């Protein structure tokens, strides 16, 4: 697989990229045989390989840059950001979502979190695509609840532009550490118009009025509609 990011030395996440896929499989089989050398294995099956590119159905993006020009990707050890929206591991269906999320961040006023200064609100974006029907779940990981109202107000525009987003959530992660998600969050579901939390369901007839009641949390951190399951739960 050709990767311009790897060739340019901008990303080294795929450490075995220079090895041909056949060699990678052979090396893994050799390691497996070595680990099980003392076990009686009657038959060794041939390894099963998948596609070299476009196989990931989940993206975990660090948000950096500025609110006007956000970057989605990762931070190097020296703190410099790297935009990974062109990573060939993601399917083609992710590209239009990434492209619209950048102006949406500016539209909603979600200031990217600056690690060095410990300032800002938007830390991560987590995007998951269902292999069943192509529906997507998007999660905004925020430092606090300060921007939740702005996010709520801006969501109708995003949902109109990207109808494939079946579930959109916001998770609160206040700790200054490289932790993707915190223990609390508000989760809106486009069809039910409810804001869902790990411990509370917000029934939103409008953004100004809400009643509360407990609701269970699924292993993926969201509460899918009965009988369907969100993109991450399938």
Automatic annotation (TrEMBL):
Q: What class of enzyme is it?
A: transferase
**Top-rank lineage group of the source organism:** Bacteria
Keyword field: Methyltransferase, S-adenosyl-L-methionine, Transferase
Q: Can you supply a Gene Ontology BP term from the record? A: rRNA base methylation
GO molecular function annotations of the record: rRNA (uridine-C5-)-methyltransferase activity
* EC assignment: 2.1.1.189
Region (Disordered) residue ranges read: 206-234
Per the similarity annotation, which family is this? Belongs to the class I-like SAM-binding methyltransferase superfamily. RNA M5U methyltransferase family.
Q: What is this protein called?
A: 23S rRNA (Uracil(747)-C(5))-methyltransferase RlmC
Organism (species): Raoultella terrigena (Klebsiella terrigena)
């Amino acid at each position: 697989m050709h990767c311009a990011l790897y060739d340019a030395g901008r990303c080294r996440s795929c450490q075995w990229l220079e090895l041909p896929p056949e060699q990678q499989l052979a090396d893994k089989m050799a390691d497996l045989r070595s680990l099980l050398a003392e076990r009686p294995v009657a038959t060794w099956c041939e390894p099963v390989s998948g596609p070299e590119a476009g196989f990931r159905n989940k993206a975990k993006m660090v948000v950096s840059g500025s609110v006007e020009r956000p970057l989605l990707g990762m931070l190097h050890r020296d703190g410099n950001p790297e935009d990974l929206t062109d990573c060939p591991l993601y399917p083609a269906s992710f590209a239009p979502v990434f492209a619209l999320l950048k102006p949406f961040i500016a539209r909603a006023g979600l200031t990217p979190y600056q690690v060095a200064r410990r300032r800002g609100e938007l830390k991560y974006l987590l995007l998951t695509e269902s292999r069943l029907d192509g529906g997507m779940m998007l999660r905004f990981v925020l430092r606090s609840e300060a921007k939740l109202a702005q996010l709520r107000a801006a969501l109708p525009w995003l949902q109109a532009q990207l109808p494939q987003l079946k579930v959109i959530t916001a998770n609160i992660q206040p700790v200054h550490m490289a932790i993707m998600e915190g223990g609390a969050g508000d989760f809106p579901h486009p069809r039910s118009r409810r804001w869902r939390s790990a411990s509370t369901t917000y029934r939103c007839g409008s953004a100004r009025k809400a009643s509360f009641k407990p609701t269970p949390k699924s292993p993926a951190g969201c509460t899918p509609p009965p009988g369907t399951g969100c993109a991450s739960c399938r």
